[in-house]
Amino acid sequence: MPIFNDLDLSDWKNTEIWTDSLWIIPERDKTGKHNGFYHGNFVPQIPHQLILRYTKKDEIVFDPFVGSGTTAFEAESLGRDFVGIDIQSELVGYIGGKLDNKNNFIELIVGNSSDEKTFDNVNELLKKHKRKNVQLAILHPPYADIVKFSNYKEDLSNCTSLEDFLEKFAKVVRNTVQILDQGRYLAVVIGDKYTQGKWIPLGFYCLNEIQKIGLTLKSIIIKNMEGNRAKQGKELIWKYRALSSDYYVFKHEYILLFKK
Question: Are 122 and 179 in contact (CB under 8 A)?
Answer without folding.
Answer: yes
